[in-house]
């Protein structure tokens, strides 16, 4: 069972808390790390500028990702875990970098030498309050402008142990969070029980960032991908898409995050839903956007769907073994001329595939290319709704997901739009939503979720 939600909803059982954090000498030496020529990715740069712009907020504005798993083992070997954590940090070079904003607003990466990295255990004794554990994790994990913006921990319950990784979003994405769990498990098995090394070589995230920038530096306003992006935005009155219902957002301060998760389909119904999609030349993901478009049409009367979806930009086996923020947003846009799902899913699949072709053309770079007198009305710090789809059955070890109790949680950061994650697990497909915590948004999101689930269930019922 994998729980998804906000850190406020994580309820670890009481136990002895041991954490692994950077040794003081390691922190001091890391601060002296030299500038490295690899730039941040476009996604990282935008994220860091937003974090800097809102540094005065009275809460953590940047994203904190918490991954947890409870293992049926009460005798954790702390020395083996210490070696495993340090080996993990050296395996993925994103964890050896930190960023600073210099004169003129330039963001520079610093690379920490391998010999400097040393995380050490700290025993905090028995904690019997889940809230105290949550607060400890959030307060002791630094923000994105500090090198050591990631911490590890274990809560020993006696006959089981909850292990966690808390890492700033700067260094991870959804696949990266899964890889972190599997890597640490393999490394611990190697260190504790002398199990052979089963990990594939991991690519350098710094090399990826360099290659991304080299590619996007060659883009111009005449590049096909840039022209397509601008065509879509101009067709939407120069704006990015927004959630179709009112969110009641406050304008005099920050809107914090709220969360809802539901079971969208049982696996049996998911298979039936997929059969209908394939009978119409589409895949499960095409069905998701067809259902979203039809739900939006029902709720608002819209005859055109314009959504966004995150895609992994990993292209090689080594990158698929690498932890980092390998994600870009791409558009999914199509007319809702048909009222039948069968017709809509064919069009939605084609629109999704067209969106994939824009993955190398970062929208952040597109905005950089615009002249001062542009007719595109997108401000710095822009937000847009998204629907993310992950088929977790593709992950190695997915057969154990229903046997362990794990979780992926986010901090209650600022929220301006509605973010939807649809995750297909071995036993069910879930829908999770992060949205602004306002009374109006709660009501709107409830209507949206109810309509979406009804769409999915109706399609599944067609195949029987």
TrEMBL record:
Gene Ontology MF annotations: acyltransferase activity
Organism superkingdom: Bacteria
Keyword Acyltransferase tagged: yes
Alphabetic keyword roster: Acyltransferase, Transferase
Residue ranges constituting the Condensation domain according to the UniProt record: 74-351
Pfam families found in the cross-reference section: Condensation
Protein name as catalogued: Acyltransferase
Organism annotation: Nocardia iowensis
Record lineage: Bacteria, Bacillati, Actinomycetota, Actinomycetes, Mycobacteriales
